Hints:
By secondary structure, the protein is an alpha+beta fold. The chain has 2 domains: about 10-160, Jelly Rolls (Sandwich), CATH 2.60.120; about 165-270, Homeodomain-like (Arc Repressor Mutant, subunit A), CATH 1.10.10. The chain has helices at about 115-130, 135-155, 170-180, 190-195, 200-210, 215-230, 235-245, 250-260, 265-270; strands at about 10-20, 35-40, 45, 55-60, 65-70, 75-80, 85-95, 105, 155-160. The strands form 3 sheets. It has a 4-stranded antiparallel sheet, covered by helices on one side. The model has no long low-confidence stretch (mean pLDDT about 85).
Amino acid sequence: MQTQAWDLSVHDVQCHELDIFHRPREWVTSQQHVWMLATSGRGLYHRREVPDAAPLPVDPAGEALHYLAPDSWRFVDVCNAAPLHLVVLRLRLADDSGRDLLANYRLPRRFLPEHAGKLAGPMHGMLAGFGRHTLSAQAEVQRQLGTFLGMILGLASTRPEAELHRQPRRCQKAVAYLFRNHAEKLNVDRLAQLCCVSRPHFFRLFREETGLTAQQYLCRLRLDHARTLLRFTDMSIAEVGRAVGWHDQFHFSRIFSRETGCCPSRFRTRDLT
């Protein structure tokens, strides 16, 4: 009997709560999968990828739970004087090459009240665990996260093969190399060598399998790591830029602002949904 080992890991997982007050409407994005659960107040969830659609209600008594897909541009506004209180879970689930495994599924973006009620339990469980810094609390967060993901995938459907054509296959070693060495200068010759193809063939193959150039893919990896360092370390903006591969702080800030909708310093202090 043949067996295969899977090296799966959850990256950048964080569960926190926040209040949203009236504020200027600003489109923001994230490379993480985000679930937001409204516990009090009322709001509206605006999505730029569907500009003609009406905003979705965010309401504890109705549509309390929403899923925000990676790279989607959105903002949440408040409907009245009372703040909108949210519990927010954000994460990435990847294999050892850095591929996003949740991209294999069509995840539900809106939830019936009965589903939201069930998913609220593990979300609140993770929120409590993140507030305690003990081994038992960490174990409980992992258990609650497993329960949450199991319930989410139970509501999801597997994407048809035709929609998965951009999952790296021949370029998998190159993708894994970029994932492990994202702070290094892009070396196309090294990547082509890993894929056993010529340099011109690599350019075509990588874009065909990922939908991005190698430079664009590397930029996404760097931005993803930069978000984590900004959120969870005290490193300066310049130090974060250098850590992910950009040694010019101005260049780093310009790219970060263009791709996320706000500058690094504001990202660090804002509670982004």
